[in-house]
Amino acid sequence: MQPVLAFDVYGTLIDTQGVTIELERRLTDVDKAVEFARRWREKQLEYSFRHGLMGAYVPFSECTREALVFVDRALQTGLSDNDQDHLMAIYGELPAFDDVVPALDQLRDAGIRCVAFSNGTADAVAKLLTRAGVESHMDDIISADEIKRFKPDPAVYAHLRSRLEVRPEHTWLVSSNPFDVIGATHAGLRSAWIRRSSEAPFDPWGIEPDKTVTDLEALAERIIR
Hints:
By secondary structure, the chain is an alpha/beta fold. The protein is about 50% helix and about 10% strand. It contains 9 helices and 6 strands. Strands 3-2-1-4-5-6 form a 6-stranded parallel β-sheet, with helices on both faces. Helix 2 crosses helix 3 and helix 5 runs parallel beside helix 9. The longest helix has 25 residues. The radius of gyration is 17 Å and the shape is globular.
């Protein structure tokens, strides 16, 4: 049986650091813009984890906005409400990594089913992927919002399996985020870590991905082979 690949979106298909260019325009300081983008992403994930643990679910976009406000305060960048609204809009128009479409074309030509699997709402992800030229390459979009949880809650991976109706050994989670890879592996799925930076460490939890590659085209070649 052919595997089904479930692709994480933010950081795996879509470059969350793409917001840096807009931050540079607003902050007029390249180093601060890079730091802001990095901390915004880190805080966004932290807030999703905290909301999940508290049982106080909010849509992922609210975690993103809360994180934006926090980093603005922490770095004392003085963004106006209009600045924040504009940056949130930019976050919905982030670019795909260069390897995404070629890899998805290879997988589709090989008859392999591909879906987007995200903490973001299905509507937000669909719009994001459409703008990035990726949505038409996906067979479906599966969102953690459908059960009001966040990855890496095991219930989210169970929901993925339920939606796909595929046995766990044929279900692959593809992500550049180690927490997501570990969560999927812990839930009994196969996993592939996209190590986009040679300096990126993997968490020392004793749980390893089934495959580690540097980009999606390399993964497509290994899956098809």
